[in-house]
Write a structure and sequence with these properties.
Strand content: 5-15%
Strand order of the largest sheet: 3-2-1-4-5-6
Helix content: 25-40%
CATH topology: Rossmann fold
Number of domains: 1
Number of strands: 6
Number of helices: 7
Shape: globular
Distance between the termini: 27 Å
CATH architecture: 3-Layer(aba) Sandwich
């Protein structure tokens, strides 16, 4: 099955929930190397997150990976999510909205919150998490983590790629009228 365009949402409103940027960079490379994926990867976020997204997209071909941080209006974000082949992101509003839209979604969920309570919902959502001894820590800032966010660092880019390929193979694309 060919995977349509992918939305990557590497930022949340709290750094304690953000998967490392270098993991996202590696993930994008792994996705681009997949023969089943011939689309575009769009990295989304706010204008303030644009520089962080530059670090993720810089090593990759500009015709395949786009830094759209700060360039999309909220209605444009909603349309992009609804038409994506897959959405990959942290525990954030974007992952929850993609799940609501029934888009294949991979949510990388850190140990700051309880996944059973706070995870995105839906049959098209896969949550990847690591429960370590200090989770759920309920911390607000990544710098407060005594283990340098091991709960997120231990989730490999290969695991996320595999989850994205599996969920897109399982969930057929929906015919959606966005208007």
């Amino acid at each position: 099955m060919t995977v349509q365009d992918i939305i990557v949402a590497p930022f949340s409103n709290s750094a304690i929930r953000d998967w490392p940027q270098e993991h996202y960079t590696e993930l994008v490379g792994l996705l681009l190397a997949e023969p089943a994926f011939t689309g575009i990867i769009q990295v989304i976020g706010t204008r303030n997150q644009w520089l962080g997204a530059c670090e993720i997209v810089r090593p990759h071909p500009v015709d395949r990976v786009v830094n759209a941080c700060g360039r999309l209006s909220w209605p444009d974000v909603q349309t992009a999510l609804q038409t994506a082949g897959c959405v990959i992101g942290n525990n954030s509003g974007i992952a929850h909205l993609a799940g609501y839209y029934a888009v294949p979604t991979v949510c990388i969920f850190g140990g700051s919150h309880q996944p059973l309570e706070w995870r995105p919902r839906g049959a098209t959502v896969v949550v990847l998490s690591r429960a370590i001894g200090c989770s759920p820590c309920h911390l607000d800032h990544g710098s407060l983590s005594p283990y340098n966010k091991a709960c997120l660092r231990e989730i490999s880019p290969q695991e996320v790629r595999d989850a994205a390929l599996a969920i897109t193979a399982r969930v057929p694309p929906l015919d959606k009228d966005i208007n």
